Amino acid sequence: MSDSTKIVVLGGGYGGVHAVKKLYKEFKKDRSVEITLIDRNPYHTLMTELHEIAGHRTEPEAVQISFKRIFGGKRVNVISDEVSSIDFEEKVVKSESFEYEYDYLVLATGGQPEFFGVPGIQENSFTLWSLEDAIRIREHVELMFREAAKEPSKEKRAKLLNFVIAGAGFTGMELAGELLELRDVLCDKYHIDKKEVRIIIVEAQDTILPILPEKPQKAAMKYLKKMGAEVHLNAAVKEGEAGKFTLSDGTVYETETFVWTCGIHGSEFTARIPLTKGKTSNDNCSIASPEGIHGMAGCHFDDEDRYVVGERGRILVTENMRSVDFTNVYLCGDMIWYVNEEKVVPQIVETAIQTGDVVAHNIIADIKGGEKKSFKPNYHGFMVSIGGKYGVAHVMGISLYGFMAMAAKHLINVHYLFELAGVNAVWGYLKEEFLTIRNKRSIIGGHASAKIPAYWALPARLWLGFVWVVEGLKKVGEGWLNFSEGTKSGWMFSQGVTQAGAAEAVAAASPEWEEGAEAAGETAGEAAAAAGDAAAEAGEAAADATAAATEWAGEATEAAAEAVNGWTINLDQTIFQWDSPIVVWFRETFMDGLFALLPYQLFQVMIVGAEVAIGLALIAGLFTWPAAVASIGLVFVFILSGMFSWAQLWFLFLAIVMMGGAGHVAGLDHWVMPWLKRRWNSTQLAQRTHLYTDEPVIRRRKK
């Protein structure tokens, strides 16, 4: 056995990942500490967004954050394996093929659905507690519409189009919202009358979303009814069988789609480890598959893959999130049983993250010495989306509805993802939620869903590149590279600015500056004269209109309209005049200091070179995105220097269009950018900073 301290974290959910990140931050320079994360999947699942997958709003990859993205470039061992047992005395975690020794063990295997022993429910229902569950619901719902479209029997058709959700907590409400939106999409797709589809929510309590205050509850109920949902309160599910489910009040729902969201308990893994449970499941006969415990509707497992779990539950922990049985075993997340102020801590994301933080802190204290930390829950609020367009929330004592609630939820997700995997994860989320909108299912509707095919931008790219090259060559013709004539860019700077080490350049620059200032003055004079003429014309028109008003009101309106229409903008006029405050500020703040330090020869070569380089890059379709950014930068420099006219603003707007992938059509970016992306994504710098898109490229070091 090596002399290193081995920390093994079992489970890559919210709590497990947070614990690993904090442990790594503390021990990243300490080679004597080894951190290992073991999970059955190679990715972290965003459990709070599973309803979007089930409702076909986003794609499955939207809720998968690979551990390579989270821990790439970091000294964390990530292992995809299925742990079968743990020998706590020998301090060994075991799978079918491998054994993993540990000095400290963190259990974060999460929870799984609780069926409360209700007869026939697990065998005939769907659940929504894993990505596999979400995909099953997603595929099954569309299958029901497809089958109903060709079903002649009204009774069978109604059964296919009845969708019943048991449980009006977060999961049930969010799934209901998704199905209500998906209903409209699938009705159009399969030519089904929307009135035939029933979305039914069944709840044993007398209210929905019991964890929220009354006002958000009522707002959510109002929206559900507006969308056409049926809510059946004060009715627990009594029993279920294939295609039929009976409630405690005698109501019977015939449906091929029954989704159970009535709670969770300890995972099936807790039945395999000899740790003291604070609370055991009400059902000791739950069935498990290789995926764990879940609803078996829509599943196709062989009999040998199914087994009865036995007694499972939530593991009892101390205030330090440590097992009551072993001092080197810590737990976090949904699998813990801990009573705080006479209330059991809820199984929510904030609990998982905060307990993960406590676990990491206390393991660090064990290894390095220090004061242990007790778990003190601090919940900031709760948010629930009812589809992609509406939500309710109660955050820090404030209730939010509609757009504001959804915005809060998105902001919380962005904050979490940034801490999880930086810009990489945030960009993936924003791209999926706001740049790939399907069927207008977003708080911003469908305004960002339309995309311009890149080939339409090809002519614009070539023209923009051509004009930039022409601009650069024109400056060459004007003598920008003929330094014997002195500076040609002096007019961009304030009069009297001395260029370091080039007195003759300053002398040559003075006439240039005077010419520029004189030209600017002439332009301003012409503009003032034009404004005076326009004012005179407007006055005459107004007088005519007043006189005509005494004869006929309609003629006055027409004359006034003509006067307004006669006002025009001179598009050839500069956006900002040379002596305008913003130009003076920009010149004195930035350009003057640059001119005093940078030889004018180098400055002019840079300007000409930049214009020609941008143009050639755009024409070739090579590095189009950086070229577009540089183009925008140059445009702003010219605008703030008082030399860009309104008619030239198309430079700016066309450059923005170029950033949408215009170089991938008949351009070198089609080949070069993927190659560069692979190279960059494989670097330690990219992986440690998360400044890359998609997945990292892990290169194995040669031994």
Automatic annotation (TrEMBL):
Domain (FAD/NAD(P)-binding) spans 6-268
Identify the Pfam families for this entry: Pyr_redox_2
Give me the segments passing through the membrane: 597-620, 627-644, 650-672
Record field: catalytic activity: a quinone + NADH + H(+) = a quinol + NAD(+)
**Which GO molecular function terms does the record list?**
NADH dehydrogenase (quinone) (non-electrogenic) activity
EC number(s) per entry:
1.6.5.9
Keyword Transmembrane (UniProt): yes
* Signal sequence coordinates: none
Keywords assigned by UniProt, alphabetized: FAD, Flavoprotein, Membrane, NAD, Oxidoreductase, Transmembrane, Transmembrane helix
Entry similarity comment: Belongs to the NADH dehydrogenase family.
In Swiss-Prot or TrEMBL terms, this protein is called: NADH:ubiquinone reductase (non-electrogenic)
